[in-house]
Amino acid sequence: MITCVVHYTIDPAQIPAFERFAHEWMRLVAAHGGIHHGYFLPAEGASDRAEALFSFDSLAAYEQYRTRFGVDPEFIAADRIRDESGCVLRYERTFMRPLLPPAA
């Protein structure tokens, strides 16, 4: 399993747009074989930081999902929310492998 952690710097004035963007990506990840663990939005402290975590069975499965970027109309529409609202100022992806608790 590979987990993608996306670190966002967001515009705090555009949180409703960011939430629309996030809901679309949670739906798309799930529809294309991934597991979305959610978006984590500011509650206290820095108001311009958000995180997202989602997993695929392998890096190859993630790469298959990525082939839809810039091609699939639903992916393009989801990115349009970000681009037109300016809700995301910048982001970076980190790929991690989870260390889970042992089975009971």
TrEMBL record:
Residues 7-99 form the NIPSNAP domain. InterPro entries: Dimeric_a/b-barrel, NIPSNAP. SUPFAM superfamilies: Dimeric alpha+beta barrel (SSF54909). This is NIPSNAP family protein.
